[in-house]
Design goal:
1 helix; elongated; Lipocalin; 8-stranded antiparallel barrel
């Protein structure tokens, strides 16, 4: 009888030790998982912070940025590269908040948004404007997409992109390409 109790007790002790060992392994695995997740969160946080610092440098004037007023000369061209014989002036304003506006002799005021693109001094914008004929009759809208490159000093820009004209009903009636060169207005 004593041996039976001893055998039962011994079996229970082994079971407790085994369960305790399994618990410690699970506890160690949980700590390892928490450490891995913590390291991953740290890496992501550092990457996001680095991006915010880069954006902040642009807005603090440490790196030339697109924000400001630009005097432009726009040259329409066929999309195969042949320039039209005429160019016209324009003015663009890029705000820090990613909005932009502009005007030219070809369209009424343009309104749109801009964003940074990969690489130093690279940006893009998309805008919409109203189109009128010579008698001021409303023709429709023009949507413009442009890629922008700033020079190293941040006082000159060039653009290259496309435009699409729509009639009053929203049907596409024309499209083409354009380039522009501009200087910062100060």
């Amino acid at each position: 009888m004593i041996f039976d109790d001893y055998a039962t007790h011994r079996h229970r002790l082994k079971s407790i030790r085994r369960n305790k060992s399994n618990y410690e392994v699970k506890k160690m695995t949980s700590k390892s998982t928490i450490s891995t997740v913590g390291i991953a969160l740290f890496v992501v946080t550092v990457a996001v912070a680095a991006q915010l610092v880069t954006l902040g440098q642009d807005y603090n004037g440490n790196t030339p940025t697109i924000t400001g007023v630009w005097q432009m000369v726009v040259t329409p061209k066929t999309c195969n590269g042949l320039s039209a014989p005429v160019s016209f002036p324009g003015i663009l304003l890029f705000s820090q908040d990613g909005n932009m506006t502009g005007t030219s002799t070809a369209v009424t005021s343009a309104y749109g948004t801009w964003e940074r693109e990969p690489g130093a001094g690279n940006y893009s914008f998309k805008s919409v404007s109203l189109r009128y004929d010579a008698t001021q009759a409303f023709l429709g809208t023009r949507v413009l997409w442009q890629n922008i490159s700033l020079n190293d000093g941040g006082d000159k820009m060039t653009t290259d992109g496309t435009f699409t004209d729509y009639d009053k009903a929203g049907a596409q009636v024309a499209s083409g390409c354009s380039t522009a060169a501009g200087t910062r207005f100060e």
